[in-house]
């Protein structure tokens, strides 16, 4: 973990020095390094059954310019062993959800539908996702 902290310090120093040149690549590197540090710290803690939050933080790096943007979005987040659910409202104030299932959960759904779970699951997905 000390290596990651030192690496982060170097990136911050380089970023401050490069601002005259207009370089904006520090933020994604910082999030990556911080994420690795948090994962190391989290590995020493007891496992969670679920993770939930009333707000989601997004870090987006524009493909064209390389500029990074941080957004806080009012979405309910629920992560369990079955997958991730994002819940919120549409612009018309209608409740909506997006659910990302794990392969295991998807297999269970296929079994519940009475279909053979040994087949390739790709033909159960729409090709637009």
Give the overall form. extended
Low-confidence stretches: none
Q: Helix-strand pattern, N to C?
A: HHEEEEEEH
- Going across the biggest sheet, name each strand in turn: 1-4-5-6
Largest beta sheet, briefly?
Answer: 4 strands, antiparallel
The percentage helix is: 25-40%
* Structural class by helix and strand composition: alpha+beta
Describe the structure.
With 129 residues, the chain is an alpha+beta fold. It has 2 domains: 1-47; 50-129, no CATH class. Helices cover 35% and strands 26% of the residues. It contains 3 helices and 6 strands. The protein has a 4-stranded antiparallel β-sheet with strand order 1-4-5-6. A two-stranded antiparallel ribbon has the order 2-3.
């Amino acid at each position: 973990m000390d290596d990651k902290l030192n690496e982060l310090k170097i990136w911050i120093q380089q970023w401050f020095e490069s601002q005259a040149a207009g370089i904006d690549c520090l933020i994604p590197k910082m999030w990556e390094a911080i994420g690795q540090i948090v994962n190391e710290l989290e590995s020493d803690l007891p496992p969670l059954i679920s993770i939930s939050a009333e707000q989601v933080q997004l870090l987006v790096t524009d493909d064209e310019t390389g500029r990074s943007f941080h957004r806080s979005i009012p979405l309910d987040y629920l992560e369990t062993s079955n997958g991730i659910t994002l819940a919120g409202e549409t612009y018309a104030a209608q409740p909506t959800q997006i659910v990302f299932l794990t392969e295991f959960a998807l297999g269970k759904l296929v079994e519940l539908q009475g279909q053979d779970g040994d087949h390739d699951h790709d033909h159960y997905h729409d090709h637009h996702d």
